[in-house]
Specification:
Elements: E1 3-14, E2 17-28, E3 32-36, H1 43-51, E4 58-63, E5 66-67, H2 73-78, E6 81-84, H3 96-108, H4 116-132, H5 148-160, E7 166-170, H6 178-189, E8 196-200, H7 204-210, E9 213-218, E10 221-226, H8 228-232, H9 235-242
Parallel strand pairs: 3-8, 3-9, 6-7, 7-8
Antiparallel strand pairs: 1-2, 1-4, 4-5, 9-10
Helix pairs in contact: 3-4, 3-5, 4-5, 5-6
Length: 283
């Protein structure tokens, strides 16, 4: 299977600090790929370099065989890249349906006022997307009245309205209860395989439930890319997270729950030997 996304020598520096340092990474079409690592590892910065929100200092970014290194975030979006943000970007005073409709209209280049037939097409698309993310009954509810988990579900519907080939998800389970993260996991697992998903997430239960391949970043560099089992079994990964090569504390299994495949609480990760930077990310 060919790579949908290729990174070669990608780096981003802030003065003397290398937030991302020479990252090489291939993401195959249809993959479910996670980026993990301690706080300050460069995960969110790497996401911004992939999306075009931030310019690379070095290296190249290739999407579907075309180099997009110098393309803006908007132009990359037009080539099939969408993302959900760590912090919500929804319109709080608008309804769930209106948020999705705005995204669909913008993606299709439609004017605010549409011909009746085109408006029906948009309305049908919105209804389908809200049903896909489990929000059909909340379509006419203002975003400000939705729960945190429902807003995350809505963000996915907004991203899907752009018909992406590559979906970047930045800490989608942040702040969620076990029940909410369980629903999120089921939702992402149900996405069609023509959408490639890359997820940055601190909740390792969610990571190991979703990802088929996992890349571990540490100090801005790739420490390991492998299967979830390879990551679980890596002493180097254990040490990067906890400063200890004794396995068990980070990946120890516990009794499963209906909403958490591993049943563990979220890992308590900390920065290991890396300064925080207000210019880059802390994750």
């Amino acid at each position: 299977m060919s790579a949908l996304l290729e990174l070669r020598g990608v780096g981003r520096s802030f003065g003397a600090l290398k937030a991302v340092d020479g990252v090489d990474l291939d993401i195959e079409s249809g993959a479910r790929h996670a980026l993990i690592g301690p706080n300050g590892a460069g995960k969110s910065t790497l996401f911004r370099l992939i999306s075009g929100e931030m310019a690379v200092t070095s290296g190249t970014v290739t999407l579907s065989g075309d180099e997009v290194t110098k393309l803006s975030q908007v132009r990359r979006a037009r080539r099939g890249l969408a993302q959900t943000m760590q912090h919500s970007s929804l319109f709080l005073t608008q309804t769930a349906a209106q948020n999705v409709a705005l995204a669909a209209q913008r993606h299709r280049g439609s004017a605010r006022w549409l011909l009746p037939r085109r408006q029906r097409d948009v309305d049908d698309r919105v209804a389908d997307l809200l049903d896909e993310v489990g929000l059909s009954e909340r379509a006419q509810v203002p975003v400000s009245s939705l729960s945190h988990g429902e807003r995350r579900q809505l963000e996915i519907a907004v991203a899907l309205a752009c018909e992406p080939r590559l979906l970047l998800m930045d800490e989608p389970a942040a702040g969620m209860s076990l029940a909410e993260s369980g629903r999120l996991t089921e939702l992402v697992l149900a996405l069609p395989r023509d959408i490639t998903v890359i997820i940055v997430e601190h909740d390792l239960d969610v990571v190991f439930a979703l990802a088929e391949r996992v890349t571990v970043l540490h100090l801005g560099q790739v420490l390991l890319t492998g299967s979830p089992d390879e990551v679980r079994g890596s002493a180097a990964v254990q040490e990067a997270y906890l400063g200890s090569s004794t396995r068990g504390e980070l990946f120890a299994p516990a009794a499963s729950t209906p909403h958490s495949p591993q049943g563990r609480p979220k890992a308590n990760v900390s920065t290991q030997g890396r300064p925080e930077s207000s210019l880059g990310d802390a994750s």
